């Protein structure tokens, strides 16, 4: 791999605008496309998305759960999605929110980020709520293979604050996650580049970034901001939520784009419209 993930994401955001299109084939959406909710419907849905998104957005984020529902055949569809997007030159972020202890985290890291991974994404979402350092095997392996991570910091669901806004030893939990990512991105920051350890901060968190004093610019973290579109995040709210760090933010949207299917032409038009709104 030629460049680290942070640099590749920076280039993709500059070329296509800061949009990450989600592939979330849940039952309601699949059926609204006139497809049956089975592996064949899943495959048709997911490959239509690949066709519409490849080459048009900075990154694509398939949500693993919606493929896992169908067992090994669903996972095979997910692997095909990741492989086809890689071949098309579009970055992938697998949303699997993995997080575990020691040897188990090492196995998750090898499964998704290792040299021998079957269909590796360019980056993986991970949960630091077993402790930021529990992610060390994934952080180190991603660094060696040029891949990236997005670590949950402030999630878009209302329940998240009960853990993420809590304070321990005088430090807010989310701030400790930002501090961890800043340490791992320090070398990239020194070169004036984005690091490869990103954060997930919902587009819907309002003033929490400022209220909790999170220094995202200093941490040189790419920020994945789900909740753009269907959950209420807007171009204006991205500006007020992220302030000086707005240029690091990759807005993620699933339902708002996917609702335009199944007609490929309409899906492409909606993808382009949302990407343009963010680029502007
Ligand atoms: O990690 C994520 O992507 C994520 C984190 C978060 O805080 N909130 C959140 O909604 N997500 C994911 O982002 C997607 C949101 O989809 P829409 O609300 O349809 O745009 C889903 O796949 C969620 O699992």
Automatic annotation (TrEMBL):
Protein name: Orotidine 5'-phosphate decarboxylase
Enzyme class: lyase
Xref: SMART domains: OMPdecase
UniProt record similarity statement: Belongs to the OMP decarboxylase family. Type 2 subfamily.
Gene Ontology MF: a single term: orotidine-5'-phosphate decarboxylase activity
Matches recorded under InterPro entries: Aldolase_TIM, OMPdecase_AS, OMPdecase_type-2, OMPdeCOase_dom, RibuloseP-bd_barrel
Top-rank taxon: Bacteria
HAMAP family, sorted: OMPdecase_type2
UniProt organism field: Terrabacter terrigena
EC number(s) given by UniProt: 4.1.1.23
């Amino acid at each position: 791999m030629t460049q680290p993930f942070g640099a590749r994401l920076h280039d993709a955001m500059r070329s296509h605008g800061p949009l990450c299109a989600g592939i979330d084939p849940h039952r309601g959406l699949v059926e609204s496309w006139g497809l049956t909710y089975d592996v064949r419907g899943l495959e048709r849905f997911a490959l239509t998305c690949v066709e519409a998104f490849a080459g048009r957005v900075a990154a694509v984020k398939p949500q693993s759960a919606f493929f896992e529902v169908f067992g090994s055949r669903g996972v095979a569809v997910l692997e095909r999605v990741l492989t086809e997007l890689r071949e098309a030159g579009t970055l992938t972020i697998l949303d699997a929110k993995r997080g575990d202890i020691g040897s188990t985290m090492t196995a998750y890291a090898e499964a998704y980020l290792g040299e021998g991974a079957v269909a590796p994404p360019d980056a993986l979402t991970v949960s630091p709520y077993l402790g930021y350092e529990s992610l060390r095997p994934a952080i180190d392996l991603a660094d060696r293979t040029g891949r990236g991570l997005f670590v949950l910091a402030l999630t878009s669901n209302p329940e998240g604050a009960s853990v993420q806004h809590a304070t321990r030893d005088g430090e807010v939990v989310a701030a400790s996650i930002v501090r961890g990512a800043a340490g791992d991105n320090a070398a990239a920051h020194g070169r004036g580049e984005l690091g490869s350890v990103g954060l997930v901060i919902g587009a819907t968190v309002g003033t929490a970034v400022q209220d909790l004093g999170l220094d995202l610019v200093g941490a040189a973290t790419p920020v994945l901001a789900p909740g753009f579109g269907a959950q209420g995040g807007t171009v204006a709210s991205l500006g007020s939520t992220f302030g000086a760090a707005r240029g690091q933010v990759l807005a993620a949207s699933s339902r708002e784009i996917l609702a335009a299917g199944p007609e490929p032409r309409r899906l492409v038009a909606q993808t382009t419209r949302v990407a343009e709104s963010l680029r502007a």
